[in-house]
Design brief:
The chain has eleven helices and 13 strands. By secondary structure, it is α+β, with helices and mostly antiparallel strands. It has three domains: about 35-135, 2-Layer Sandwich (Beta-Lactamase); about 140-230; about 240-410, 2-Layer Sandwich (Heat Shock Protein 90), CATH 3.30.565. The strands form three sheets. It has a five-stranded antiparallel sheet, with helices on both faces. Helix 8 runs antiparallel to helix 11 (about 355-365). It is elongated, with a radius of gyration of 42 Å. The N and C termini lie far apart (about 120 Å).
Length: about 400
């Protein structure tokens, strides 16, 4: 008969054995019931055990898998990769996230991500590996669809670029063909108005002036379209040299002042000092002409006022074109330099314009490394257009007499 101590010891042993069995059952439940493919292999790569999901996924019974090599269930395209991974595990004891294609009993294949760790005996000696393989068929299919979409998008992009190139070529051809007949029309109208071919009565002069004005407007529109295309394509050529910006401003004002005087609009200039910039003088003439003519269109006749101010601000030349015209509401200020944008359709019909002039100005100014923006306190409060252009580097000699056109030479 056992004494109390022996009875207690026996009971403790039974409890420990029960705990071990419970733990084993839990392990096998997790191992067999997991949605991940598990297998246990020895040091030679022979499968000693696997879970039910592993066997089911490959289409075998567990007894058909036990004792087989890991390479027996690997698709041909992944044999080399698995061999490298197996050697890596033997060397450093771990493998993570290797893509391995598995082959089912029926010959079909599917992709997995393989990770492996060491398996030790009770004495701490490595005897094999516990390997987990995650079926990534859904991820692989999604990846294939994504690549197919990317390929399709690339093809569509190529087609769009081809269409864009055709459009650009067509637009260039059309504008050139439109411009070609307008130049002689303008020339002949000027000759007729000079009365070289004979005297004209007032009504004839009036009609010819309308033709000349309309022709100029059409020529400007065509030039704006061409310049806009060049800016968008990055093909706008700027022939830069160092110029006194004040000289360019005075030349533009002298050219436009007759139109201002005709409408009793006061046009004034405030040039603080000589300001030298590296620029394309003809393009800056175009920008300033556009800005002043824009102000002329929207200034009140008889009491309109337009002022141009030039100064330097830090490392930049600062031009301000200010008028007392109809102004711009705040929500529209940021949009007026967008191609074809019109602040008010009614005003456009009244004053004309296509909404391209300011967009071209922006492209030219930015092509010079500058900035352009508008400020207005609202409708009826006038507009200020600000232009910043980088000052010429000090390595240039600012001597106006260096060149007859007012530009200066580099030292």
């Amino acid at each position: 008969m056992m004494n109390d101590f022996e009875v207690e010891s026996t009971q403790q042993l039974k409890n420990e054995i029960h705990k071990v069995r419970v733990m084993e059952q839990r392990y096998h439940s997790l191992y067999d019931g997991s949605p991940i493919l598990f297998r246990t292999i020895d040091l030679k790569g022979i499968i000693m055990d696997c879970n039910v999901f592993y066997a089911d996924s490959l289409g075998y019974a567990k007894k058909e898998i036990i004792g087989k090599s890991i390479f027996d269930h690997t698709a041909k395209q992944s044999i080399a990769t698995l061999k490298k991974s197996f050697q890596q595990w033997k060397k450093i004891g771990i493998v993570k996230g290797k893509e391995i294609w598995m082959q089912r009993k029926n010959g079909t294949t599917f992709p997995t991500l393989l990770s492996a760790t060491n398996l030790f005996d009770n004495e701490g000696k490595r005897i094999g590996s516990n390997t987990a393989l995650r079926d990534i068929t859904e991820i692989h299919e999604a990846r294939k669809k994504l690549k197919a979409h990317e390929s399709q998008m690339k093809e569509q992009l190529v087609q769009l670029k081809k269409l864009g190139a055709l459009k650009d070529d067509f637009l260039t051809m059309i504008t050139h063909e439109l411009k070609t007949p307008l130049v002689p029309i303008m020339s002949y109208v000027d000759i007729m108005l000079s009365e070289t071919f004979g005297a004209l009565n007032e009504e004839q002069k009036k009609r010819l002036e309308i033709i000349r004005t309309s022709t100029r407007s059409l020529l400007k529109l065509i030039s704006d379209i061409l310049d806009s295309q060049k800016i968008e394509l990055g093909q706008l050529v700027l022939n830069k040299d160092v110029y006194d910006l004040g000289t360019i401003i005075r030349d533009v004002v002298d050219k436009i002042k007759p139109d201002a005087d005709k409408n009793n609009i006061e046009l004034t200039v405030d040039l603080k000092k000589q300001v030298m910039v590296l620029c394309d003088d003809s393009r800056m003439d175009q920008v300033l002409s556009n800005l002043i003519l824009n102000s002329l269109d929207f200034c009140p006749k008889q009491n309109g006022k337009i002022s141009l101010r030039l100064d330097s601000k830090g490392n930049d030349a600062h031009i301000v074109v200010k008028d007392n015209g109809i102004g711009i509401v705040k929500k529209s200020i940021g949009k007026i330099f967008v191609k074809f944008y019109q602040v008010d359709a009614r005003l456009t019909r009244e004053h004309g314009g296509t909404g391209m002039g300011l967009a071209v100005c922006k492209g030219i100014v930015e092509g010079h490394g500058g900035k352009i923006w508008a400020e207005s306190e609202g409708r009826g409060k006038g507009v200020e257009i600000h232009v910043l252009l980088p000052l010429a580097h000090k390595s240039y000699i600012f001597t106006p007499k260096d060149k007859p056109d007012g530009s200066v030479s580099e030292k």
